[in-house]
C-alpha cells in the first residue's frame, strides 16, 4: 500500500465494483456504468489531486461514435454520490501543512487529510475524448475532463499497447 500522508492511498484496502452495459447501433455505442466503492477511483482521463475513503455509489453514461475506420470520439457524464462519513487525502498538500484553520476552498488544498460529511467527497462532471488506432497494437487517446464540484479541468494523452497482438505477431 502507498503512503496515505503523501496521498498515494487511503492506508486501507479499497474496493470498487462497477458494471457496464453498452450496445452498438451502427457506428454509435451508448453505454451506462454503475458501481459501488469505498474510494473515489481515478479514471483513464482524470487523475484527481486527492483520494477518498468512505462508501460511495458512482454512475457514468455516454456514447462513443466511430468517425472513421481507425478513429472514434466519445463523451460521458459522471456522478460520484458518497454517503456517510468520508475522509479526503490530498496528493498536493504536504502532511506538515495540515491543521491550517480559516482557509476556504476544497479540503485537499487546505489539509493533507480531512474527515467530514459526504459532501466533501461528492464529484460530478464530464469527459470527452478522441481515440485513434493507427495499428492493431497501438491505441492513442486524447481526453478532456471537467469536474464541477471542485472546478477542476484535466487534459490527458494516453498510449495503449496491445501486448497480446504483439505476442501473436512475434509468433508468426
Overview of this protein structure:
The structure is a single chain. The protein has 172 residues and is mainly beta. The chain has one domain (4-171). Helix content is 8%, strand content 51%. The chain contains 2 helices and 10 strands. It has a 7-stranded antiparallel β-sheet with strand order 1-2-4-5-8-9-10, with no helix packed on it. A 3-stranded antiparallel β-sheet has the order 3-6-7. The model has no long low-confidence stretch (mean pLDDT 87).
Characteristic key phrases:
mainly beta; single chain; 172 residues
Secondary structure layout plus pairing:
Layout: E1 16-22, E2 28-37, E3 50-53, E4 56-68, E5 71-82, E6 86-90, H1 107-110, E7 113-116, E8 123-135, E9 138-147, E10 152-161, H2 163-171
Antiparallel strand pairs: 1-2, 2-4, 3-6, 4-5, 5-8, 6-7, 8-9, 9-10
Order of helices and strands: EEEEEEHEEEEH
Cα shape: elongated
Provide mean pLDDT, rounded. 87
Level of helix content? Answer: under 10%
Biggest sheet: strands side by side, in what order?
1-2-4-5-8-9-10
Low-confidence stretches: none
Q: How would you classify the helix and strand content by structural class?
A: mainly beta
Q: What Rg do the Cα atoms give?
A: 19 Å
Compute the number of helices: 2
- Strand percentage, roughly? over 45%
Q: State the end-to-end CA separation.
A: 40 Å
| Number of distinct beta strands | 10
Main sheet makeup: 7 strands, antiparallel
Number of domains: 1
Amino acid at each position: 500500500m502507498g503512503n496515505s500522508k503523501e496521498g498515494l492511498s487511503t492506508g486501507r484496502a479499497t474496493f470498487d465494483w462497477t458494471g457496464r452495459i453498452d450496445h452498438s447501433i451502427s457506428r454509435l455505442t451508448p453505454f451506462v456504468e454503475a458501481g459501488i466503492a469505498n474510494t473515489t477511483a481515478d479514471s483513464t482521463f482524470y487523475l484527481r489531486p486527492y483520494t477518498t475513503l468512505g462508501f460511495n455509489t458512482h454512475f457514468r453514461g455516454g456514447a462513443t461514435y466511430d468517425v472513421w475506420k481507425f478513429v472514434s470520439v466519445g463523451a460521458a457524464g459522471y456522478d460520484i454520490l458518497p454517503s456517510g462519513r468520508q475522509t479526503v487525502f490530498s496528493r498536493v498538500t504536504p502532511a506538515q501543512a495540515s491543521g491550517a484553520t480559516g482557509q476556504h476552498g476544497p479540503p485537499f488544498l487546505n489539509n493533507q487529510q480531512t474527515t467530514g460529511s459526504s459532501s466533501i467527497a461528492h464529484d460530478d462532471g464530464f469527459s470527452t475524448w478522441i481515440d485513434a488506432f493507427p495499428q492493431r497494437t497501438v491505441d492513442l487517446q486524447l481526453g478532456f475532463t471537467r469536474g464541477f464540484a471542485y472546478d477542476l479541468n484535466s487534459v490527458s494523452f494516453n498510449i495503449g499497447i496491445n501486448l497480446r497482438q504483439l505476442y501473436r505477431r512475434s509468433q508468426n
